[in-house]
Amino acid sequence: MISLNKRGLLAGAAALGAAALIAAAPAKAAEPIKIGFSMALTGGLAGAGKSALIAMQIWEKDTNAAGGLLGRQVKLIYYDDQTNPATVPGIYTKLLDVDKVDLVVSGYGTNLIAPAMPIMMQRNLTFIALFGLAVNDKFNYDRYFQILPAGPKPITDWSRGFFELAMAQDPKPKTIALVGADAEFAKNAVKGARIHAKNYGLKIVYDGSYHPKTADFTPIVRAIQARKPDVVYVGSYPPDSVGMVKAATEMGLKTKLFGGGMVGLQYATIMTALGPKLNGIVNYDFWVPEPTLNFKGVEAFLKKYQTEAKGKGVDPLGYYLPTYAHAYLEILGQAVKATNSLDHGKLAEHMRKTTYDTVVGKVKFAPNGEWAKTRTLMVQYQGIEDNKLDTFAKAGTRVVLYPKEWVSGKLRYPYTEAR
Amino acid sequence: MFTFDLFWNALVAGALLGGFYAAVSLGLSITFGQLDIVNIAHPAFVILGAYIAYMGNEWWGFDPILTGLVAAPVFYAIGVGVYRFYYEAFERRDDEALRGLAFFFGVMFIVEVVLIMAYGVDFRSVQAPYIGGNWEIGTIGIPTRMFVPCMVSIAMFAAVYTYLARTFTGRAILAVSQDRLALELMAADPVRVKQVGFGLGIGTAAIAGALLIIIIPIEPSVGRLYIGQVFAIVVLGGLGSISGTLVAALILGVAESLVSTFYGPSWAPAVAFSVLLIALAVRPQGLFGR
Amino acid sequence: MTRFWIGAGAVIAIGLLLAVTDIIANSFWFFAAYVVLQYVVLATAWNIMGGYMGYVNFGSAGFFAIGAYTAIVLYNLVKAPLLVMIPLSGIVCGLMGLGMGYLTLRLRGVYFAIGTLALAVVLETLMVNWDYVGGATGAYVIRPRTLEPFGDYVKFLTFVMLVLAVIAVAAARWIERAKFGRGLHAIRDDEIAAECAGIPTLRLKLIATTLSGFLMGIAGAPFPLYVGFVEPASAFNLAYAVNAIAMPMIGGTTMWAGPVIGALLLGTAQQIANVTISSELNLLIVGLVLVLFVTLAPEGIVGLVRKYFGRGR
Amino acid sequence: MTGETILAVEDLTMRFGGFVALDSVNAEVYEGERLGLIGPNGSGKTTMINCISGALGNYTGTVRFRGRDLGSLKPHRRTRLGIARSFQIPRPFRSQTVRENLAITIEYATGASGAERDDRAEEVLQSMGLGPRADAISAGLTQIEMRKLELARALAARPQLLISDEAMAGLSSNEVDELLEILFRLNESGVTIIMIEHIMRAVMRFSQRIVVLDAGKKIADGEPDAVVADPAVERAYLGD
Q: In terms of CATH architecture, what is D5-93+146-238?
């Protein structure tokens, strides 16, 4: 009885609310369209989060300069999630219930996307996520879209390029070492690599993980070296990526292909710190300044970004994440324009079937919300001779080897020679 | 898979790592071990030292270790200041145990946040000629990036050890918490003595920070990761034993390295802490405890 | 019926009323209240050991996380409902607390505090390497969307947390007034003298650590359902350890009201700072407030109030 | 002597690593007796009472209380059986009032509660002359008040055997007399007392019998005058 009564009440309230909304509609037209999200501005992912925010604010400014959306200005409303997943549910309810945002997008990273999902699903909201790995595998939510170009099967698509490159060599490699940090992304990256290794019949001679705070990687690299693998696949985070590269170059790691899923090697500060030590490494990337990837608008965007980023202690180049942080808002904006509405059902519908043109190229989503086709690039660091920032801003230092459409150079193989 | 080659290499790598751990722990060994001040903010000061080494390197191209040496007197002064405050606020009121702990907890947070506000959270690293080299002695490889910090650390230990053993103030520092009577006989003012000792402890953080940034890239919250480690080493070594701290650091480094090589790197930190837990349970006074 | 119990009953009744009706339509308040109430439980649990008994636990996050992970195991095994998760998480953490109690046999003061820190690290490493609960990758726990008569499931979670907070506070208040609490107080002042005064110190310490562990466990049990995704770094987050210590310190460690006031104030301040300042300043404030309180008001807010009204002894 | 054996120590040996603090000590204490325990610094007096009170549990040999082997009983159980001690350096429950110090001891050591507990606390307060300071926080007491509280807390446990560990060190001679009076009164009320003391005047005045320890061994046991005259005791105190 209680619940029946309550439902009655609810229905009444909803009707009243709807009436109020209709009445308020004309007055609201002048108000900006609010887009809410959480972002890691402190804590472990703050470096990335802050650079993403700069990119998003550039989009906000440009969009408003061009007249906004649906004749209204847009306004970003965001809170710091401190890289702490526990803050995320609170932030999104605040955005939705107190700030009454019209649209929502995610913060940066799987750990900070997942906690928002139950709320999105409860309210049937269209949710575009920024760099989540396989979040929707568990939720199966049809209004979830994700901008990281991992591909429809994120776990395996992630390292597909690495393995296709390896297996195209002559003679084919026979053994592989897998190593990764004990943390979300790295574990998943190595998991995908393990599947590929099995499928290709590569013998896994080392399969280890390490604590993310490991200070010295020498023992790990040595243990790997002792097993003489043809290929070494690494899934790592920024500090340990640096540690791995340093240990590998110091000890002269003897293998034919080295790299794979090392986060951080894309960041300007880390590239300039490592400099020539990067040569020969084959690693994933999302955007590099190669002629094949010169999409419309990306240059202009990066110029703005690089001006904005100065002196803020964030990535000064902005290739890796900021381009995509700009793109996911572009998609949202384009969908709003095309459907001429803020209705989440219509937006999701549009996103499911449309191919969008963005600063990161053409984006088309698969039914599970991931990119319909992987565009995880495999790039090789080549010909780096110094530690200058400009070196990494030119074409040719990170040549694209995969996927085919974007290839801009040749693989130098094996790693021992390419170094 | 076991080979002697791997074993010796693991041993050497562990010893080098241990040498570095020792540098980070030395300051705490003085402040906590000798003076009974539970300075859990010590790793935060180490990170501060690392950032100063970074600044010197980035702006003027100074050698990080040199910067560390130059910064050490400044850190000494900071240490003296912190101790004065600590003394006035807690020790004098005989109220240091719990609240002193909370105080340093707060200090740790403040240092970290100030660093974030100043530098952001991007990873920073330094350039130096000895970063990236490697010596091969037979089949054993010695990365200079690890070797140089280890040697600097040992030199620092030797210097501190000599200072404590040979000078009047040094001996007073050794006596201040363990042997009040001796201190009185020496006619030394305990507050002044502790002030010097604490300054010395924080001073070592400047150099330890420089060593840290040579080994790995840093960001402001990296310091927290070392709280457990350094306390483990100081307790394992036995409070009040400087040489014990060095030995414990080496043991921990070697243990981590061996586990990392032969078992699985992901268990390395747990092994270190398990050793600590067992040591605490069986022999709380540490290996070389008083 | 004492005033306390009438108050507690009223709090629960009002909580229930707010949770089942739509008087507060805005579910943000429930999400925020959940976090604050969770800290009330955690701070109160910490204070039973830290405040009453004088044993500082740096490993609160470890207990909280094991509470959460027990819930994940139960979820993975049998999709157990929340009301089963809570007591079982409590029991697991209670047993862990018991183990920690035996640690007090050998370790006192700072050594004990460091021991608890080490314990938390060991536990985290275990969870990182245990794939059944998601390992380092993390585990998804999908909460029901709604539960009648609460509507939104989070309203239910918040109400449950409110009840847990009342239970924790009632337990703390009982301890404070019972012979047991006076025994703990004596242990805090001087353990050896307490033993010689006929106080069975080991038994009292074991009960206290078990109870404290139990309460931390129940604080962590609903966490997976609240966030939906748990990985070791977030479950063992330093924030829990810091807040569990800072909140009683700020509120006052000698009285049950201390941790409650501390958690309500600091917890609410953090929730507000989260959505207003939204930067590093947030953390800086926690640090400064903590330093300020421990230096200027060692007895916490409760102590200040007592002093002000001249109720000091 | 006065009554039957209340405490018997047989072959009591305590080692700390390689150091033998107590070496096969045998001694008896009789019901209602006033026993003095003396010896030079480091002779094992405090170790011995730590073994008797249970603070050190890993001794070898036997401690019997009223014929019962105390084995590895914890200190709090021994307190409840009727063995109470005071500490050389006072260890009050510093944050609590004098009255609370006593109340908690009564509550745990004797099981009394409520009004009964409070009455007894009052009783002990009065008998020790601590009445005016009953509601002061014990951390703020003077030296003599601390000593009194130390004894008062031991008394609150309603002991049959009281071990007083250097309760008089550092007190003025008037204060020593005041404490001696209290101990005499207690003894008259039937409590057996072991007094450890360096102040020979007090020991000689108080003790009916004296036991002397030196380097962990019992070297003398007898009437005060006889013990003091014993050449072995003289050697122990003055050296060869």
A: 3-Layer(aba) Sandwich (3.40)
